[in-house]
Amino acid sequence: MKAFWMTACAMGLFALVGCQKSVEQQQADDIREQTQQQAEDVRDASQEQAEQVRDAAGRDAFGNAQTNSAERQADALENAGERQADRIEDQGEAAADRVEERDSGVPANP
Question: Which pLDDT value is given to residue 55?
Answer without folding.
Answer: 87
